[in-house]
Structure of Spectinomycin 9-adenylyltransferase:
Amino acid sequence: MSDHLDTCQPATYEFVHSLMDEIKYILVDNLIGLYLHGSLAMGGFNPANSDIDLLGVTKVPLANEDALKLKKLLLKCSNQPFPIEISFLNKKQLREWQHPSHFDFHFSEFWRSYFENQSQTGAEVYLYDGDRKDKDLAAHITITNYRGICLLGNPIIDVFPRIPREHYISSILGDFQSCLQNIEQDPVYCTLNLLRVYRYFKEHEISSKLEGGEWGLSHLPNEYKIIIRKVISHYQNHKYNEPFEAHELLSIKDYVKEKVEEIVGYDFQE
């Protein structure tokens, strides 16, 4: 596996390692390890629009006071300058794997306002009350197993279970369905995600969004290459960006949807 973190821009490297040190300071001996997945681990990271995707694993469930410290840290660090998406699971949740998976704590920019409101009201620190589960963890852990980076702690192979393929498929198809519905509202993420899911079913390859787009350029018919190039250009933050046309987005969406439906054997409802 190529360690893309070692070849990223210095600001990104320093941000990740500073965050790593802060988390280690909070969790001390309870932390089994911290693991990088997503675009930074797979070589498709764009400092202008990519998240830092992380998984943290602990020996025992997080104490509420530690979760509160993590919340404060992430509210302070995320988007300064890179957005952070991170989930913490404990050893028992991984050992007794189920899908959707339980987790102890989650932060992303999507939940920033929720956490900020908690801080104002003094409410419970956890993301959800009661039984906390996340269907996306099957995909995150699978990607970590195949292409993740251990930032600190025990090796990936010793920490994470092998996720059943049907759980991984369930996870990525949920996101695939969402992208079918939202491609006009979020054309870059949705188009690239549709392509990487299609590639997985076609070739059983786990890809970053950028790799999915590059694969689409070489495997989809010529009529879709203009829109794929536009999407990749936007994703890579090139200065010249052509506008998206609804008809070309809907055309590639319909093409990929039909191909994936042929493979999985059922129709997606939009």
